[in-house]
What we know:
Distance between the termini: 38 Å
Number of strands: 0
Shape: globular
CATH topology of the largest domain: MetI-like fold
Structural class: mainly alpha
Strand content: under 5%
Order of helices and strands: HHHHHHHHHHH
Number of domains: 2
Amino acid sequence: MSTVAExxxxxxxxxxPNVRTVAGAVLPLATLALxxxxxxxxxxxxxxxIWLVPGPDDVWNALVENRSLLPRHFRVTLVETLAGFALxxxxxxxxxxxxxxxxxxxxxxxxVLLGLNAVPKIAIAPILVLWMGFGYGPxxxxxFLLCIFPIVISTATGLKSTPPELxxxxxxxxxxxxALFRRVRFPSAxxxxxxxxxxxxxxxxxxxxxGEFVGAEAGLGYxxxxxxxxxxxxxxxxxxxxxxxxxVGLFYALVxxxxxxxxxxxxxxx
Length: 270
């Protein structure tokens, strides 16, 4: 009597990631499809007028009709988002290193960061427009102010949570402080760094739109304001859909970079 061989643990491990990959792609798409269906049903059941709540088909038609206009505004918001996010990284990472290296700097800088983070950015944006005009500057600064706090907090936390045994091991080999930072502390902190970056990238899109709401001549936030003034709710919803696509795309781009640079974090999650 023949018997069927049990799959080996190695074969199970090979199939596991593929199943998770397919599920990770299918489940969000299925959820999105259900939300769109629920949206369409709600507009039909409650018979909302198009100027109040447009249906998915109305939003799609608005996107198609404005396909020559929207890419330019999409690019403007993308540039503002990435510029403010990059500036927050350039300033935030060194600031985190300083905080993690000095108790005095931590006590000095943290209260200032908390104060800046507590100020509503919508209140700062009009002043920035007054100072810097309607160009990229105010949007980049608002984005920077929204992004820097989670980056600094997460990175500093990661740098301070380095396993003590690794630090002692490297110090026992007479390594310099820079070598300790480069080979142990910063690689160990990378999972925390990416936590802050993933939080910040979503806030970056919000920051760019806040700046465009207050004063802009282009961008998806500008499209939403202009569409609201013209009672073109379908186009406003279309711009919001594009903002969602932008935010999700940037987030998962960071997830991909994290998997390349911090592969051990992914194995730990399993």
